[in-house]
Amino acid sequence: MVGRTKEDAQNTRRQILAAAEQAFHARGMSRTTLAEIASIAGVTRGAIYWHFSDKADLIQALLDTLREPLDALAKASQDEDEVDPLGYLRLLLIKLFEQLVLDARIRRIREILIYKCEFTDATCELRQQRQGAYQAISGRIERSLSNAMRRAQLPADLNLARAVISLHAYVDGIVAQWLLLPDSFALAEEAPSLVDAVLDMLRLSPALRR
Question: Fewer CB atoms inside 10 A, N or C side of the chain?
């Protein structure tokens, strides 16, 4: 009975996340209410508050689902004992681009975050949540690049702060461009070359040296 109750709770949570994804994609984050999400999910608002403290918490849960398929590669690139952190970072970025093309759910969530995430006075907590998420991603990139520098896979005099900004912006830019114009280039096929291009920049650009 306890196992069934837990399974029911997990199913309800998945229903709510799927409904939130649908509503945010259709109406944008700021214009979507928890009541609308509850209606789509076929649950009460109380059920939403049982699983999520507020809209920002619900959005964070959607973000977490983006990370799960890539967690193993991410952890390997950030592991100080890993002998090939740059290799794992390369695979991580390639998979990130590929899953955008192959997984419609992930594509919708990325589109919501980039094009349907409106910051208003009424959603200031959403802006803070997105700022925190961006800083967390930058921190993970920094750990990966630091490991690669220690393993002599990147130059010892790499300007780490500038490299993190450049890599983060490069990846975000490609994702945003492809989501806006998906027919402009074959992202899955181009993924290895696009990733190698930015890694070459980190290795060779004089502007990224201290």
Answer: N
Which letter, b or e, does each residue of 32-60 get, where b requires 16 or more Cβ atoms within 10 Å of its Cβ? bebebbbebbebeeebbeebbeebbebbb
For residues 163 and 202, give the distance between their C-alpha atoms in angstroms, rounded to a whole number: 7
pLDDT tens digits, 99-136: 999 999 889 888 888 888 776 665 667 778 778 888 88
CA dist., res. 158 & res. 48, Å (int): 46
Tokens encoding 85: 């952190």
Taking only the tens place, the pLDDT of each residue in 23-38 is 888 888 778 888 899 9
pLDDT in tens, 43-60: 988 889 999 888 878 888
- The partner residues of 158 in beta bridges, in order of sequence, read 209
Which bin fits 157, alpha (ψ -120 to 50), beta or left (φ > 0)? alpha
Mean pLDDT taken over the chain: 88
Residue 2 has pLDDT above 50, yes or no: no
Distance CA 163, CA 203 (A): 10
Tokens encoding 184: 């402009």
The first and second tokens of residue 185, run together, are: 């280039």
Cβ neighbours, 10 Å, residue 148:
26
Q: Across-strand partners of 209?
A: 158
Of 91, 89, 11, the closest CA to residue 47 belongs to 11
